[in-house]
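Record type: monomer structure entry
Structure origin: computed from sequence
Chain ID: A
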Amino acid sequence: MKLRSPMPELDGATEWLNGQLTKDDLVGKKPTLIHFWSISCHLCKEAMPDINAFRDQYKDDLNVMSVHMPRSEKDLDIEEIKKVAAEHDITQPTFVDSEHKLTDTFENQYVPSYYVFDAEGQLRHFQAGGGGMKMLTKRVNRVLGIKE
């Protein structure tokens, strides 16, 4: 997905955890962080406390949602996804993408990966990999209009 691309529709979920969202729920109100992760991804689990901190710290100013992107057959077990999500305090709406429909729409190849959209639904930042929380924080703060 290229920068300044509009947020795609959130179609094709195998299941939703913690509530279901549509693009209309997110665009036009406040910026959005969409976070791709997988239960088999060690770096994803390490990053969860940071994502949860974003969710909690900016709950009034930032939408946060997760997308579970399976990387193998073992990642398709919905009960295991629910268990890992609970273990890592993932309380935000989570799109379970067992058929890679949203993953393909985003042209996403990585977990963890982060997409930051502004309030109008334009992609402002993309980042992949385990590190770089400072950069992600900077980009989130920029779309929120927070001076560093």
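Annotation 1: The chain has a mean pLDDT of 94.
Annotation 2: The first strand starts at residue 15 and ends at 17.
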